[in-house]
Amino acid sequence: MNKSADIFVRTKVLRKYLKDNRLSEVQFAEMIGVAHSTVNRVLNGKRNPGSKFIAGVLKNFSDLNFEQIFSYNNELPKGKKEVS
Amino acid sequence: MNKSADIFVRTKVLRKYLKDNRLSEVQFAEMIGVAHSTVNRVLNGKRNPGSKFIAGVLKNFSDLNFEQIFSYNNELPKGKKEVS
DNA sequence: TTTGGTAATTACCTTATGGTAATAATTTAT
DNA sequence: ATAAATTATTACCATAAGGTAATTACCAAA
């Protein structure tokens, strides 16, 4: 089936952001409201960000918008037709 | 622990959008690349949208932005400090 | 160099999201 | 009214995200 619809993190961008703002993974994790293990795994590509991660980032970092930090495959799912 | 960090769907908004565009749950599901059961459960508040759902919407409905369809609690997680 | 502290990584488990497929409800033709 | 589509709902299961807590790596001070 359609295997291409997940959200990814632009790890390089996020890593740079953390560095520039002198934030450790632990600090960042606390700020966005997830465990530091979650942040670590996402940064290392072992997990994709879930809705909790995404919400935490958008909620607490108003200087970051979705497209800056996140990405997704741009393939269309099977039956997609343009709307309206 | 911090139980407040998930993403919700503005079901009324989404329902109206589907109605206005004459899209059934099945059609919408196909367009965003998830099962129709997923759409149904999200619309009925029985599930929150996961990253797949969110990605599907943002990807395929460029006329919708994140804040229009989704929301999240605006409480700050425990150790949150404003950055820079 | 060892002690203490911070940061990063990972094994193990829990839980929530997503798919399948069957069922129910609703609508449209005939 | 009833058969045939279409649409919506849900039980059941698979899997991926998230938490806990232990372990490892790193680094500074004495």
UniProtKB/TrEMBL annotation, chains A, B:
GO MF annotation, one: DNA binding
Pfam families, per database record: HTH_3 (PF01381)
SMART domains in the cross-refs: HTH_XRE
Organism this protein belongs to: Pseudobacillus wudalianchiensis
Chain ranges of the HTH cro/C1-type domain: 14-64
Protein name: HTH cro/C1-type domain-containing protein
Domain of life: Bacteria
